[in-house]
Amino acid sequence: MPQIKCTQKPVNLIKTLIEWLTNPGDTVLDPFLGSGTTAIGCIRTGRRCIGIEKDAGYFEIAKRRIYSERTGEVIAIPKPEFEEQVLPRQMSLFEALPN
Q1: Rounded to an integer, what distance in angstroms lies between the CA atom of residue 81 and that of residue 79?
Q2: 37-45 vs 11-21: helix axis angle to the nearest 10?
Q3: Which residues neighbour 94 within 8 Å (Cβ) at sequence distance 6 or greater?
Q4: What are phi and psi of 94, to 5 degrees?
Q5: Comparing 13-22, 46-55, 76-85, which segment has the lowest mean pLDDT?
Q6: Is it true that domain 11-96 has CATH number 3.40.50.150?
Q7: What is the H or E stretch that residue 51 is in?
């Protein structure tokens, strides 16, 4: 699957962490659901997942991915239509020090 979010992790990495840190049937809390990778890992390992996402666009993508994973039905997942937020450049410690 193509990467949807710039911080999206590979499902197999998250799946491995879920298997190491939880037992089948446990509930995993993901307070930053994003595109739903943790939820997909939970489905594939027999765990439940509670996901929280404040961005409606990513929440919709996560819902579609979870539905597709549960049903096996292939669903078109739209590319997010979000403006990338440009953050001000961080000043390095050395730039902040007086000469």
Answers
A1: 6
A2: 50
A3: none
A4: -70, -30
A5: 76-85
A6: yes
A7: strand 48-51
Q: Rounded to an integer, what distance in angstroms lies between the CA atom of residue 32 and that of residue 54?
A: 8
The pTM of this model reads 0.71
The tokens for 91 are: 């000043």
- Give the integer Cα–Cα distance in Å for 17 and 69: 19
Number of C-beta neighbours around residue 77 at 10 A: 17
Q: What value, to the nearest 5°, has the Cα angle with vertex 68 and ends 64 and 69?
A: 120
Rounded to whole angstroms, the Cα distance separating 40 from 35 reads: 10
Ranking 6-10, 26-30, 54-58, 63-67 by mean pLDDT, the lowest is: 6-10
Please compute Rg for the chain using Cα positions. 17
Quote the tokens at residue 9: 């992790």
Encoded amino acid at 73, one letter:
E
